[in-house]
Amino acid sequence: MLTRRQQYEARVRRRAMLVAGGSTLAVLLAIVVLVPFAPGWPAVKKSFFNAEVFADTFPGLLNAFLLDVAIFAWSAPMIFALGLVVALMRDVRAPAAYPVRLFAIVYTDIFRGVPVILVIYLVGFGIPGLGLPRPWNSPYVWGTVALVLTYAAYVAEVFRTGIEGIHASQRSAAASLGLTEADTMRFVILPQAIRKVVPANMNLFIALQKDVALLSFIGPVEIFRQAGVYKSLMANFTPYVGAALIFLAITVPATRFADYLLAKQMKARS
Amino acid sequence: MTEPILTLSDATLSLDGNAGRIEILKGITLEVSRGETVGLVGPSGSGKSSLLMLMGGLERATSGRVEALGHDLTALGEDALARFRREHMGVVFQSFHLIPTMTALENVATPLELAGRADAFERAEAELRAVGLGDRMHHYPAQLSGGEQQRVALARAAAPEPDILLADEPTGNLDGTTGAAIVDLLFGLNARHGSTLILVTHAPELAERCGRVIRLTDGRIADGDVAKAAE
Q1: What is the pTM (predicted TM-score) of this model?
Q2: What share of chain B is helix, strand, coil (3-state, %, to 5)?
Q3: CATH code, domain carrying B53
């Protein structure tokens, strides 16, 4: 049995949903109706939205995407670990350990300041150029290194804001309990900091999944390169649309999941 | 006459702020005996809390000497100081300062675990029951009321059976009745374990219950520095 207030709120909610649904439908309809009037539409339709090409290439793209997922899967834990280490290095307070801190600062400055694609080129072509033996000349190894170096710098900054965002009172409370600085970091500060920055980190890892496609420039035939192969083969751009859809199928649910986790966590602790 | 557990000789504390150097404590000399209850009172900014932090080894004196249980706190290194606090000190803060990612039980048990006590969780449970929170052990701080949080903080400070219990306005954020219950628990600990109790307070009725009251003004002891130990 609903109270009068709940009935009223339900009515308002229904009305809001109807309006939102209606306006979305109107916009979609306008696009579907109006775009075909553009002079170039038939050509675009044929070369970007070709159902036949889509059906032919989609399984191959999906297969190539597994490589993207694999590269992501082995890079992400390394990024997490290195990012955490760099963030902790930056929090070192002892004056004698200043070089450690300085290294962390220089590291984040450099790798946040250079475009990912440049790091991939420099590391991915430069280091194998030293004439290393197999497997140390593999673009998989050095592509991964490039991604890890770059993304760890961002993740470190996210962790650092998390660590600095924990109120000073938590440090004094831990000190009053006789926790050493290392214990305080491990048991008091980090568990809170890591949780606080989960959404920010999720965003970075979603971006990482997309940036894995950049490794195609140094060799690996992942989805973007595979789409390029199909494009040349069939003289048609539809495989790129297919690749985009596959990325969306991963990144959109991941984003929603991150939001859900955050909402759940906030509810549990309020 | 009992042995002194805490001795300060001409201890000063200065901090460097944006507005330059601020002298917070300007030469404090006092002695506290084992089992004593001491109330630190005085206007805001007079240095009460800083004095408490100095006594607990949470702040380092700029000059002078702070001696507790025969240790010179001004000479101990960071880790030795941490160990000293773990073994001998308990602190209760005005705004509780529980660790939000841990349940009440974990909050009380963690310092015991880190001190290497095998019975950490049993001991923490017993301590929580003693403050009347037997049924709230698995709640997170955010799920507890202010009074309950302060009782957890009290259990956490008392669990290792500290020689000295420091409380910084323990009832400052609580209503009268809840505050009175906390105060009863604090003095109960003093009576049961013989812990020395030093508390900062603005509440006259709380100060009255202390065996000795030290009044601070502007970083100096205004009166009360004549130790009752002479009695």
Answers
A1: 0.77
A2: 35, 30, 35
A3: 3.40.50.300
What residues of chain B lie within 8 A of the CB of A96, using their CB?
Answer: none
Structure tokens at A191: 């568990």
Domain boundaries defined on chain A: 1-37, 53-268
Q: What is the pLDDT of residues A12-40, one digit of tens each?
A: 999 999 999 999 999 999 999 998 888 98
B135 Cβ partners below 8 Å, 6+ apart? none
For a pLDDT cut of 70, what percent of chain A falls above it?
A: 99
Whether the CB-CB separation of B166 and B199 falls below 8 Å is answered with yes
Report the percentage of chain B scoring pLDDT > 90: 29
Overall number of domains in chain B: 1
Determine the pLDDT at residue A167: 85
| Residues B104 and B141 sit within 8 Å (Cβ to Cβ) | yes
Q: Do B84 and A178 touch (CB under 8 A)?
A: yes
Q: Which CATH superfamily is domain A53-268 in?
A: MetI-like (1.10.3720.10)
From the list B58, B82, B142, the residue facing A180 with the nearest CB is B82
Rounded to the nearest angstrom, the minimum Cα separation between B27 and chain A is 24
Distance CA B26, CA B13 (A): 7
CB B107 within 8 A of CB B149: no
Whether B180 and chain A come into contact, CB under 8 Å, resolves to no
ipTM value: 0.70
Beta strands B20-33 and B4-17, pairing class: antiparallel
